[in-house]
Write a structure and sequence with these properties.
single chain, mainly beta, Ubiquitin-like (UB roll), five-stranded mixed beta sheet, 2 helices, disordered N terminus, metal ion binding
């Protein structure tokens, strides 16, 4: 089950440890990369050389939304997704900080 929370402070560790890897599905390719503490999912994708969609980068436009299929994340800001979408695993990746040891995110 996904645990997606909206909080104002980014976590640095979880009860089971720090985030170590992020798997990103984008343009029919899957890339798994090491996670650098404090980065958002969007920043992680960029550091991996991926061209993930983005625009405003403050959680207002929804261009960077993606779905978590494994793991959890906390959004620092969200002006786009409603509670049902969040419950279904959708996150604003420019504002989503991983909170589980591994995370898998799919961009449509």
């Amino acid at each position: 089950m996904l645990d997606i929370l909206r909080e104002m402070t980014p976590p640095t560790a979880t009860a089971s440890g720090t985030t170590t890897t992020v798997t990103i599905r984008l343009d029919r390719q899957t890339t798994t990369v090491g996670y650098r503490a404090g980065n958002t999912l969007l920043q992680t994708a960029r550091l991996a050389g991926l061209h993930a969609p983005s625009s405003c980068e403050v959680g207002n436009c929804g261009t960077c939304i993606a779905q978590l299929t494994c793991g959890s994340a906390r959004m620092l800001n969200n002006e786009v997704l409603d509670d049902d979408e969040i419950a279904d695993g959708w996150v604003v990746t420019c504002q989503a900080i991983p909170t589980s040891p591994t995370v898998t995110v799919h961009y449509d």
